[in-house]
Each structure stands twice: as structure tokens, then as C-alpha cells.
TrEMBL record:
Record's subunit section: Homopolymer.
Top-level taxonomic group: Bacteria
Primary gene name: folE
GO molecular function, one term: GTP cyclohydrolase I activity
Organism from which the protein derives: Polaribacter batillariae
Similarity comment: Belongs to the GTP cyclohydrolase I family.
UniProt name for this protein: GTP cyclohydrolase 1
Associated pathway: Cofactor biosynthesis; 7,8-dihydroneopterin triphosphate biosynthesis; 7,8-dihydroneopterin triphosphate from GTP: step 1/1
Gene3D superfamilies: 1.10.286.10, 3.30.1130.10
Presence of keyword Nucleus: no
Length: 228
């Protein structure tokens, strides 16, 4: 039976949110990060984007770009950085492992669209998340949603990987969670060194996934071709 999580956001933060992310993996937020509404954030960011475009010499009266500051502000607050708002945290529905499935479960090829916090340029890749049940099972899509929630922040890939694992550990009540992310950083691919070929792999292995055989099994599943 699904125990749909109907708790208030604050309690959900207690369950899978930032409060359970180790200090080293926390997104560096100011204490007053939630002091203003999303609407107010959009208004303020809109003015900042106007300033940037104006400084670059763009004519903000031009038909094509007069709506750009608002579009960018909405994209930042509602989409690209929606994971900074705990109200957007997915509820991690878990249910009892009644069928006593005892092997690992791997959710492969979760698409990652994130934003590099150093250059505010896209990070695009795939996350692979695995866990071994300790009595609780999580809805498959909730793993994709947890990845999405933490991806939609200014990020470094290492922190994103750790946040996904820690949120899953909290939701499932087990250390036995792993995550591998393979992603391209546009700050590396399209500017700076401009290496379009390289990608970045990060991993975090908790509990049994630190053991050689379990880690190996997980990584082998990632090699499997899926033909559907
Ligand atoms: N560890 C880590 N580094 C990242 C990530 N995303 C971007 N970076 C790196 O952050 C570094 C920032 O270095 P800086 O020297 O301050 O920035 P920069 O002058 O723009 O560096 P270049 O990209 O080498 O031109 C760069 O080397 C980026 O490649 C990430 O997710 N993890
Ligand atoms: Zn970058």
C-alpha cells in the first residue's frame, strides 16, 4: 500500500530535504533565502536582467527582447532553480516491501538538466540511482523526481550526486543507496577550454554499495544495452 505523503512542507523537509543533507553537501543558502516570495524574486531578477542586457548595449524596446527580462526571471525561479524552493520538494511515496524483493533496484538513465553554479551554464547528462530495500520501497518516478529537484539548483556535480543519495537514504531509511552521474558541462564544452568531447562522472556509494561486489553489480547494470 502506498502511504501517500500528505504532510506539510516543513515536515517533508524533515524527511527528505536539505535538513538531512550532510553539512558538506548542503547548497550554500543564506539564512534569509525564503524571506521574499517567488513573485518578488521574479520582479527583482527581471530588473537585474534588464540591467545586464542594457549594459551589453541591447535595445530593450526591441519587439523581440522586450519580454526577455521577465522570461529569464520566470525561467530561473519557476524552472531552472525551482529546487531552491522547499515547497517544490517531491513527496517521496514509500510503501512496504511486501513482495520481499531483496536485490538491488536500479533506476537508469534519468535525464539531468542542471546549472553549473560557477558560470550559470547548463549541465546535461544522466543519473543512475540504485538502492537495496531495508523494508521500504519507493515509487520509481520518485527517484527521477528527487534527481530533478536537486538538479534544479545552481550546482556542482559532486554536491548534486551526494544530495540525491542522502535524500534517498532518508526516504528509504537505509544507507544502501548509490548514484552515478555522467554529465556534460557547457562551461567546459562551449566556452573556456571548449572541449566538446569530455564529460564528468561522479559517484556516491552508501552502505552495501561500498562493498566491491555490490558496487560491481551496480556498475555492470549500467553497461547493459536496453533495447525496447
Ligand atoms: N569540481 C567541479 N568543478 C566545476 C563544476 N562545474 C564547473 N566547474 C569548474 O569550476 C572551475 C571554475 O574555475 P575558475 O578558474 O574560477 O573559472 P574560469 O576562469 O571560468 O575557468 P575555465 O573554465 O578554466 O576558463 C572551472 O574549472 C570549471 O570547469 C562542477 O560541477 N564540479
Ligand atoms: Zn561552469
Amino acid at each position: 500500500m502506498f502511504e501517500l505523503n500528505s504532510k506539510m512542507n516543513d515536515e517533508r523537509i524533515e524527511e527528505i530535504g536539505e535538513n538531512h543533507v550532510a553539512t558538506s553537501a548542503k547548497t550554500p543558502l543564506r539564512a534569509d533565502a525564503f524571506a521574499i516570495s517567488d513573485e518578488e524574486k521574479i520582479n527583482r531578477i527581471q530588473e537585474s536582467v534588464k540591467d545586464i542586457l542594457h549594459t551589453l548595449g541591447m535595445d530593450l524596446e526591441d519587439d523581440s527582447i522586450q519580454g526577455t527580462p521577465k522570461r529569464v526571471a520566470k525561467a530561473f525561479v519557476n524552472e531552472l532553480f525551482m529546487g531552491l524552493n522547499p515547497a517544490n520538494m517531491p513527496s517521496a511515496s514509500t510503501f512496504d516491501n511486501n513482495y520481499n524483493y531483496g536485490e538491488m533496484l536500479v533506476e537508469k538513465n534519468i535525464v539531468v538538466y542542471s546549472t553549473c553554479e560557477h558560470h550559470l551554464l547548463p549541465i546535461i547528462g544522466r543519473a543512475h540511482v540504485a538502492y537495496i530495500s531495508n523494508g521500504k520501497v519507493i515509487g520509481l518516478s520518485k527517484m527521477n523526481r528527487i534527481v530533478e529537484y536537486f538538479a534544479k539548483r545552481p550546482q556542482v556535480q559532486e554536491r548534486l550526486t551526494m544530495q540525491v543519495v542522502q535524500a534517498m537514504q532518508e526516504a528509504l531509511g537505509t544507507e544502501d543507496v548509490a548514484c552515478v552521474i555522467d554529465a556534460k558541462h557547457l562551461c567546459v564544452n562551449s566556452r573556456g577550454i571548449k572541449d566538446i568531447e569530455s564529460s564528468t562522472v561522479t559517484s556516491e556509494f552508501g552502505g552495501k554499495f561500498k562493498e566491491k561486489e555490490t558496487k560491481k553489480e551496480f556498475l555492470q547494470y549500467l553497461q547493459m544495452d536496453t533495447h525496447f
